[in-house]
Amino acid sequence: MLVVYGVDVTLTGSKATVVLGVIQITTGSGLSAPPVVAFDFQQETRVRSSVLRNGMAAAARTRSIRDVADDTLDYKGSPRSNCPASAHQGNQPVDRVDTSINLSRLRLEMSRITRVQGPALDGYIVTSDDAHQSETVAPHDARREYITGFFGSFGEALVTQDKAVFWTDGRYHIQADKQLSCDWTLMKLGNENVPTLSQWLLHEFQSKENETRIGADPALIPAFTWENWKYDLLNTSVKLVAVHNNLIDAIWQTDRPPYNADPATVLEDKYAGRPWQEKIRDVRREMELVGANALVLTALDEIAWLFNIRGNDIPYTPVLRSYAIITDGAIHLYAPEQKLHRSVRIHLKTDACFHADCVKVHNYTSIWYDLRTMAQAWKSVWLPAQCGYARGASQEIFISIPQSIRLIKPSPIIAMRAVKNPVEIRGMEQAHIRDGIAMCEILSYIEEQLELGTEGWDELQVSRFAKAVRMEQENAVGISFPTIAGYGPHAALPHYEPAVATSLTLGTDSTLVIDSGGQYLDGTTDVTRTVHYGQPTKEQKEAYTRVLIGSIQLASLIFPAELRTDQLDLLVREPLWSVGRDYQHGTGHGVGHYLSVHEPPISVSYDTSTDECAPVNLQPGYFLSNEPGYYKEGEFGIRLENVLQVVETNMTHHSGRKFLKFKDVTLVPYEPKLIDLKLLTPSHRHWLNAYNERIRKEVGTELKKRRKISSYNWMILRTLPIPEVGSGSSLSALPHHSFLCFALTVTHVFLDGRGL
User: 36-251, superfamily in CATH?
Assistant: First the structure.
């Protein structure tokens, strides 16, 4: 999976130069540099924090600058393919969704005074969020997808009475252009001169004399985002209006999927590593340190981790729809009570709960009444702030607590959960070995079928087969995100998901990118490999090798514990930057333990985000992805992804500083025919040989035990030792006698004592 990044900041004293969007290298590419805006970064960060903590009045007193409507920005959006629709009848993308009727119905609701409880709205904002600010939402909560037709994981929609505008990041630029109907203006975040939502509003309504009312649902919008919008619109005629009756819910009455009815389950201590009571004690200690009487938890994965429970309420992430409140003397859990079967209630000790270390269960919707009631007895309430993928509590949660007693900090669960305990570490390692076995089966079988000329192998079949093979593994529960299987031009779409209407048949003239992962009781996996079933071009080989070199340079790094995650990104991108290439997504993200595949606070990206968690210093027990890529639009794509574990070294600086390193827990062969040996240094080759040796030993041993002969042989052919010195051109050019000797050796090992 991928991580988006936004801006680059260069600090000089108290000033900062901010480069909007993606750094573009001119070396060998002729690309122009993005516009540069200089401003007082420290002052802006202080003011934005003041907005969230102290409200608009304090911001108005301290603010000295504001990015408002800028005439240099492009408010018309990016050019749209096959638009207008009237000029391209019968020639629309097969996955383009006509949302004109839904837009008309939404605009009608915006004009209904009884619905919006006030004057008619001039605009309405629909984000990707649910009530818990989840990265992936339940089908029932896919409001943004319903109104736009775009099914990627990120985007913000703004609908006015005569326009519809959509913002998304670099992972989805091409996909959004294909899926959005021509009714929509597309804003490609990360490109030059793209206005923010607030800037677009100020420009659009700058000539309107009367007040402009822009509505949004505060129960779905993160408080940080809401207050940023209010700050941007401060002292203008554009006003942000809280609309508590969600307008998408009002028009989405038919064919709306219900919430999942599956009950919650208990994650046993043999997988979790610690009982939930110990975690509660740790949380209370953190609360005591900051002087909080209560902690409100809204993120579903945090609640699942804290109580050692799992659910099926969000696709691909095993969580239960719930809220939680922790105080010194009580633990409150708000969830659909029919989902809490007897085994879960025993686990949580809910019976006759009159002490501090049992869980009081309440109906899911009672949180709103209880917050306002309990807050009357509290002096300080910890409300989660934004922290990477954790978007913090909603605006509705914030306004339920008096501003004078709000303590706004990232949830303490984030830091606790990121450092895996010994049981979780062992589970993650074992889950990745089983996942490596599955990937060898998947890749070897697809290649075998294509060589046999078997028909029907397209992107959708790859996705289905990958899921089926993973579900055969021990402790498998499901997949950790929708499988990305893109061939040819679809491989150049970082987050492409195959569908019946778009699925391409696999061929031999381009690359196939498979990005997939599994949810196991003892771990979560995320792996990407790029393969080629013909003869790759020189360009494809160079791109693949440079991506591989970047991955190797990160995986082999030994570094001081004080190194920040944003500093790692430059090392990975350097092989591409040196020839004027780049990729428009982050390099890595944290990975959960049988939870979210994207887990805060870890983000490997040179984005200098102002949230309080980024960047972070790596610690032993962290797990993160390493996933550089390269994408040539319309032709091919490359991405390689391993999950890394942060481990200690035996080295210590004379000052006492410790050094850390990475251990690859993903063990899946690379594609030899795509590697150009001439570009690899001896150290790169040594790393690759050592990595392949681990695959043969750890994954190969299990393949032999399971009698997966064809998968084992496929793996062996892709992990042959390579010369660590010399100027060989590619792995396919290795001496034939070296291959024969090695193959005879491993065949003897495989057959020895097996009676085959």
Answer: Creatinase/prolidase N-terminal domain (3.40.350.10)
